[in-house]
Amino acid sequence: MSERAPKGGRCPICGRPADPALRPFCSKRCADIDLARWMSDAYVVPGGGADADEDGDDAEATRGERGSDAPPDKLH
To answer: For 39-44, what is the mean pLDDT?
Structure first.
């Protein structure tokens, strides 16, 4: 029979049984390793290219083109 993982699952860093208090990790050490990977851009969330509106590039370009009497953009 194969060994079953405890109800909490396994640590994604080392594969040991997860500690419910630190879920999904087994220890503070593994949680810190995961955090360091996120902060160093080792992990990347996949996604499409950013729209110009999202990163603000076009917002700067269009601001200068409008006249000073133009109303401000409304937030939706």
So the answer is: 88
